[in-house]
């Protein structure tokens, strides 16, 4: 019975339906009058979409266990690690930095627009650094390792990437005046959309979403971000509003003639949990060990992936620039 109860608890946690179950059991629907109550009811949508995606893949005989297996192991591993490590980065940063905010905003529609633009800037900074700083790439690469796109990729993260992301994003938002209640609301929207844009072709065949392609970042844009094609490398860092990708010239639409090839450029075994989860750390350690002098060793920590002390750089910027020089897009 204890095993069944554990399985039940894990399913409730995965689908985020604890609050919904409590509401039905008690018959008290007044919780829907609160923001927390509404968010608690909406939260199960992404896990539900994942089930629909899996079901469609099975029905249309496109299901491949390898497309979901490692993501499942990562989810379980992170859950186990999470029971022993709890880092309240957001709360800590809010408490420390709020007194130093440039000004105080409020929970109104116009401050929501301002707050979301600031949040997207903060997300861009965190995400850009995750691709351009080797140590941070070690944290982020687990998310890029899957070689197929589907909603299970949402759960494929190194366990320390969340705290690292929250440290950067929360710090920028609080210092630029986004007040905590507004920030938490934005985080919820961002979390839902950030999960949804990982929808694969088994759920949404054409990820462009019609006219929305011109207004927001769509699953098509994010499929480009996860691709290792030279044209697509290190592009589309935003999450919902792609304003900062356009400002910093990292915006890249999907081309019909160039289907995304998912995964990372390092030779790896995408079906090996240890390689997916710790492989980049091992590669970094090997490069640092071989590098001559303390300066070169330290540079491997902060320079982009693909940088080499020999000068034979294979960074994403170099690879993409060479590709565009050989095959300029019209």
From TrEMBL:
Transmembrane segments: 7-26, 38-60, 72-97, 109-129
GO cellular component, one term: endomembrane system
Record's keyword terms, sorted: Lipid metabolism, Membrane, Oxidoreductase, Transmembrane, Transmembrane helix
UniProt membrane topology term: Multi-pass membrane protein
Matches recorded under InterPro entries: Fatty_acid_hydroxylase, Sterol_desaturase/TMEM195
Molecular function GO labels: glyceryl-ether monooxygenase activity; iron ion binding
Coiled coil: none
GO biological process: lipid biosynthetic process; membrane lipid metabolic process
Fatty acid hydroxylase domain sequence ranges: 113-250
Record localization: Endomembrane system
Keyword Transferase: no
Protein's recorded name: Sterol desaturase family protein
